[in-house]
Amino acid sequence: MRFFITVLVLGATDLVNGHPDLAKKLAEAARAQDKLATRSTALLGDLLHTVESALTVTGFEIKSILNGTRSAFADAATYDPPPKDSDDCRRDTCCIWQYIANDMVDAFYEGEECSALARGAIRLGFHDAGAWSSDLSFGGADGSILLSNEMLRSENAGLEGIASQMFQWKEEYEAYNVSMADMIQFGAMVATTACPGGPRIRFFVGREDSTRAAPTGLMPSPFQTAEALIDLFQAKTFTGADLIALVGAHSVSQQFFVDQKQAGASQDTTAGIWDNNFYTETVDPETPSGVFKFPSDLNLASSPETSSTWNQFTGPAGQDNWSRAYAPAYFRMSLLGVNNINALTDCTKTLPPTRAIPRRR
């Protein structure tokens, strides 16, 4: 499609010059095509200016995942760590993360579902990393949501419980050189696997903390139009298709403040399960009892620019389609604003295994 638009523009210069409205429409079509490319392949942070010969093994891996030549999905490999305070554990950067993962699993599993803390951890990961734009030199996945005054902002209301838990874990592991930025993103990754159906996504540690609050106005509103949301996420290096995949995390969300009369309402009928019911039920004219549909989700589901992508995530094939789109999109999210990517360490092996969606009764 993009090639077609380019050829059309090049081959019809005189026609376009004589018809300003046509030129405007063609330019809008080209911009829309850029926005809705299948997935982003933009590089981030220090990878933007690191020459190939200077890439570490980790830097090369992350670059390959970002540009789409390697998968963001983790394999099934797990890790049996040495004792926590042993010399062997101190020599292995990932060792302590296995102990943190074990603590998180205890808090994030709730029978056949994931707990409210797990769902909060997923949202916290979004809200720390998402407060970033490509024209900024700070912000993103830097822990500032908990290390500055960002928690006072209205968009972060409801995160107090998981914030308190993160501070407890940070204090417990303070002596092990664990950053809050890593703790938050690791929590989001562990929580995603704790929710049955959630993908296991590659995870790297070494993010640096910041006490500098991110600018305001960088987080999505539940009332925004599809066009405004696409533009907002494009400034974070996401395509429209990435955006539609990311909002699927509402599969395990609840709202308490958008409509306080329906406080506690989930966004689909299976709030503790990472399934694609969210996509299917959002476009259903009927709203099940106990479900609240965000106006922004309805806008994305019905917009001519994004509805076709949305519909790919509905129905029987939708779960796999969504999972394949979500993993690289959230992997990218977890690295927004990180400027030492080439120095990170792959600790994917410490993540828990995925959980199957319970058989529907």
UniProtKB/TrEMBL annotation:
UniProt keywords, alphabetically: Calcium, Disulfide bond, Glycoprotein, Heme, Iron, Metal-binding, Oxidoreductase, Peroxidase, Signal
Cofactor names: heme b; Ca(2+)
GO annotation, biological process: cellular response to oxidative stress; hydrogen peroxide catabolic process; response to reactive oxygen species
Active site: residue positions: 127
Pfam families with a match to the protein in the record: peroxidase
Site (Transition state stabilizer): 123
List of residues binding Ca(2+) 2: 251, 268, 270, 275
GO terms, molecular function: heme binding; metal ion binding; peroxidase activity
Cofactor note: Binds 1 heme b (iron(II)-protoporphyrin IX) group per subunit.
Intrachain S-S bonds: 94-347, 114-195
This protein's record includes keyword Oxidoreductase: yes
Domain of life: Eukaryota
Binding site residues for Ca(2+) 1: 128, 140, 142, 144
Keyword Amino-acid biosynthesis: no
UniProt EC number: 1.11.1.-
Annotated ranges, domain Plant heme peroxidase family profile: 117-252
Entry binding sites for heme b: 250
Record-linked InterPro entries: Ccp1-like, Haem_peroxidase, Haem_peroxidase_sf, Ligninase, Peroxidases_AS, Peroxidases_heam-ligand_BS
Family in the record: Belongs to the peroxidase family. Ligninase subfamily.
Name under which the protein is recorded: Peroxidase
